[in-house]
Sequence to fold (236 residues):
Amino acid sequence: MRRALPAVKLLVNNELPWHKVLVSEHRTEYSRAIQLDWEGARYYADADTAAWLSPFWAEGSPFLALFRQLPLERVVELACGHGRHAAQALPLAGHITLVDVLASNIAACRARFGADPRIGYVVNNGNDLPRIADGSVTALFSYDAMVHFELLDVLSYLREAHRVLVPGGRALLHVSNNRENPEGRVRDNTHWRNFGGLDVMRHFAVRCGLTVLAARALDWDGAAELDGLLLLEKPA
Ligand SMILES: C[S@@+](CC[C@H](N)C(=O)[O-])C[C@H]1O[C@@H](n2cnc3c(N)ncnc32)[C@H](O)[C@@H]1O
Fold:
C-alpha cells in the first residue's frame, strides 16, 4: 500500500518582507563578496577628483541631463560610498538620505557632512531601504554602484524604490548593461560590471510598478554600451 505523502505547506505569506523572498545562502554569499570589494577601498579618494566626477556632473553629461529631471525635495542616494555625489547634489536638494551597506562608508559620510540637518544616514542590509517610510521620497538615485550589484539585489531595490517613492517620484539608476558571464563573478568582468542588461532592468522596473521615462546605453571607459542609465517614475 502506498504511504500517504506528508502534507506540503505552501509558503504563501504576504507578510514576508520582499527582500527575504529570494534569499538563499548562495545569493547572500555572492552579494557579500561584492560589498566587501569596497570596504576601505582606495577607490574613494580617486573617485572624488574632478576627472572621476566629470562623467556624472560636467555640463553635457547624460547623468546631469537626467538628474535635472528629478524632483529633489526629499532624496535618497543609494550606495553613497564616501558621499562624493551627495556633495554635488546637496546644493540642489532639500534633504538627502544616504544609504550604504557598509557602516564604514556611512561613518565616512558622517565625518564629511557632520550634523547637517539636510542629511540622514542609513546602513542597510544590501537589498532594502530600512527606516525609509512608504511614499516618503521624491527622488532616488544611485551612481557607479548598481553596475556591480547582483541582479536579484537590483530587483529588490526596484521593489523598494517603488515602495518609498511618492506618486510622481522618480528614480535615476546607473545599471549594468553587461550581457556576458551570467554564471560568473563580477571581478572577472570588464570594469567589474555584473551580469545585467538594460532590457531586463526595464522589464523588472515595469513589473515593479514603475514607468520607464528614459533608458539609454552608455559607453564606459572605452567599453561600448557596457552601462545603462534608467529614469523611472512611480505613476501618480
Ligand atoms: C564603487 S562604490 C561607489 C560609491 C558611490 N556611489 C560613488 O560613486 O562614489 C560602490 C558602493 O556600493 C556599495 N555597495 C555594494 N554593494 C551594495 C549593496 N548590495 N547595497 C548597497 N550598497 C552596496 C559599497 O559599499 C560602495 O559604497
Notes: Residues 172 and 213 are 10 Å apart (CA to CA). Residues 151-164 form the longest helix (14 residues). Residues 31, 34-35, 38, 43, 47, 79-81, 84-85, 100-102, 105, 124, 126-127, 143-145, 149, 153 surround S-adenosylmethionine (CB under 6 Å). The longest strand covers residues 165-176.
